[in-house]
Write a structure and sequence with these properties.
Blueprint lengths: L1 H5 L3 H16 L5 H14 L10 H9 L3 H21 L2 H5 L4 H18 L2 H12 L1 H16 L9
């Protein structure tokens, strides 16, 4: 697994990091949760504006949309809040809110996706909403992994 940290496709690198972080966080992920986190990380890996969003406003704007535009906008809000809460918790302090603010908005956004999509996606997003804190904990563990000196990382 450690070799994937050094080389491999971006998906392989993110997957290896997600798996190790989930193990360290004590929250093993099922295949749907793991895949979702990997795809979110891939989707936003080069998104420079992530930290400039006003997530509460984005959430309210997403709620004003209809149909698939609503579901897509809510998914985006949920995904971005997930990344901020897990990887950039210091942003909450700088904005004078708690990490729970991002978790609550993200979870609500995923519930909204579940209500606005087909049954298969609805079940997935309900599951993601229920496990939102575990997903945040996994990303937080990933953030901590990146701070550890390489010689201190557990290699299996």
């Amino acid at each position: 697994m450690f070799e994937a940290f050094r080389r491999g496709t971006p998906a392989e690198v993110w997957q290896a990091l997600v798996l190790e972080a989930a193990e360290r966080a004590g929250h093993p992920l099922d295949e749907a949760q793991e895949s979702h986190l990997v795809f979110v990380l891939l989707r936003y890996q080069n998104y420079a504006a992530l930290l400039s969003h006003v997530h509460g406003v984005d959430w309210m704007e997403a709620l004003s949309r209809v149909g698939s535009a609503r579901a897509d906008a809510l998914r985006d809000v949920g995904d971005r809040c997930l990344l901020v809460a897990g990887l950039f918790p210091g942003l909450a302090e700088r904005r004078r809110v708690t990490v729970d603010y991002f978790i609550d908005i993200g979870r609500s956004a995923y519930h909204g996706v579940a209500g606005a999509t087909r049954q298969a996606y609805a079940a997935l997003y309900e599951q993601l909403a229920r496990s939102y804190r575990e997903l945040v904990a996994t990303l937080n563990a990933m953030r901590m992994l990146s701070k550890m000196p390489e010689g201190m990382r557990v290699v299996q």
